[in-house]
Amino acid sequence: MIACMNNPNMALRAIPAAAMVFVVLASAIPTTLYAAPGGTLEPWLDITGEPLPFQEHAEIQKALESATMLNRTTIDRPGLEGLEMLLLEAEGAQFYAVFRAKSDTSALELAAYEIDRMLGLDHVPPVVARSIEGAEGVLQIWRQRAGTEIEVAEAGQLIPANPRDFRQQRQAMYLFDSLIANPGRSEANTLIDTGWHLWFIDHSDAFESTTKILYEVELTKCEENLWLRFKAMDRDELEARMAPFLDEKQQAKLVKRHRALVKHFQRMIDTFGEDVVLY
Prior knowledge:
three-stranded antiparallel beta sheet; 8 strands; disordered N terminus
């Protein structure tokens, strides 16, 4: 059963999704859940459940770029239909990654990851541009021992050990998705690992041409250090970091959304005070 659970595709074919998530999440869960920013995440694992020899984002990206592909299968998992799960090997370790063939939206995955890095969130798994057997696309490491939120809910396991920290992660999600104008966030493209850390995948609907705050009603609180980093972002930095992935119109809309979000939180802080808005 454990070997099967470590293979994302085998797991789906061998047992129902609900049973799969129950097995995955049945292990001990730490009491401190919100690991980003500044916390400790559970390690990235190989297909046997052992920590990979590369753990830092730059190391994982390097492995994704150079790893040898051993196998590839089409994913029929809700929210990931049509993508491919690749079995890769690097530095003597085997691990899984999702390959998204090049399209009009594939670069958006790279842009979303770059925003996550700028904010220090650690909610978007490392991703790189990669050619697989002549096909251009993006390759993103798969989080072992994780289930989509819909799978966790269907298994009756969506009961965080620390609801407060879980809600705080959702606040970070609303801020992130509002900044990148992503209306496509759903239970099918949000992963939950055994440490109750949220992982954001599939940003093919992001960077819409809007300056509106998509999740204005939900955005009521913000982690203090995240707020300081967010407020410190400037136009030049945003445009420079996004230039490889977004066109000028998308960059301009992103800058305007950032300004609108800063004003949104500053108004709340001025009205209710930092002790209420920030944590």
